[in-house]
Amino acid sequence: MADVSVEEIVLNISEEALIKVLDVRAAEDEGDALGLRVEVTGVDGMDYSYDLSFEPVAEADADDHTYAIGELTVMVPAKSAGQLRGATLDLPSNPMQGGLVIRNPNRPNPLGDKSEIELTGDVGEKVQQLLTQQINPSLAAHGGWAELEKVDDTVVYLTMGGGCQGCAMSAATLREGITVMISEMIPEVTEVIDTTDHEAGDSPYFA
What we know:
The protein folds into two domains: 100 residues, HesB-like domain (Hypothetical Protein Aq_1857, Chain: A, Sandwich); 78 residues, Fe-S cluster assembly (FSCA) (GMP Synthetase, Chain A, domain 3), CATH 3.30.300.130. Helix content is 26%, strand content 31%. It has four helices and eleven strands. The protein is elongated and about 65 Å long. The N terminus and C terminus are likely disordered.
């Protein structure tokens, strides 16, 4: 990796990518005064989408994470820091691809923000509320839904249907999205089991 002078690295840059970025910056007017701003702009499937731009370092926002990697100043907006922490800006594995890639170990929650959800009642009632208020509205965008089959003490059994049944992405959605959300929002749940017959799925959304 390139030499870094910073207390905390949010987004790192490989040496190869740094050379490419500096080459591109050299063609900009007053390039030495420009830093690379990297921002998360949204969600694209199971990954984040990004915006990379050269901006004057002097115009960095007060709450930006601003640091130097070699001869390049990197600026990451505060709202994107958590989503980019631990990621690396790099060249594509395929040299024919061109451009740059961000190798990010972080993934967006496919079920959206859960911060304003309040759950009451026993485990089954809480799971049903979470399905109704958050999980199913998100799955509906992909033509799918999740249904509570039963609760056995602290174990929750769910079935996925519609576009989620037989869907190659549904297992990942259940594991990375639904299971995590249920575990965080209802800590008394010890396990979430997918009882879906995925072999019976017909024309899934993600086919």
